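Contributing new records

If you add data, match the layout below exactly. Sequence lines come first and carry their own label; structure lines follow with theirs. Keep one chain per record. Anything else will be rejected by the validation script.
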Amino acid sequence: MGFTKSNYYQETITKITLSKETVAEVEFEECEFKDCSFIDCKFGKCRFISCKFDGCMMSAVIPTGSRFAEVTFVNSKVIGVDWTKVQHMEEISFENCQINYSNFSQLKLPKIKMISCEAKEAYFTETDLTEGDFTNTDFERSVFLKTNLTKANFKGARNYYIDARHNTVKKAHFSLPEALSLLSSLDVVID
């Protein structure tokens, strides 16, 4: 079962399952998605405004030309999503989510929230993450290159490798012992 209307407003969408389907030009405003599954789907020119995804699975979704504004993902698996395909993204929040293998390269995402997430092998190349909150998130094998992390919060975050020479880390917050990884790119010896 797919979406039958072009506009959804303040609706709760529960347990819908789509696989390898295309959802085109549908607008969702103030909607809540609960326990839904979208596997290998295409969202073409869709709009998600003030929506919440709770307990959902989004795997290998392609959001071509879509807009995400004030969208929250909670307890969800948002895996392998190429966010670079979106038309616009702002005020995005992930909490207790798996966002592994996702690509956020070259996006402007100031104040993004990734709290207590698993973001393994995610890409943040040339991404603006100014004032982002990454508290308690696992960044194992994720790539930060030419990334703006000004005033970002990495307290409790782990397994990140951030080369301070190739990323902007001005006034970013890190906690020990993980913060010592920032020195690994400086070719220094610590006794």
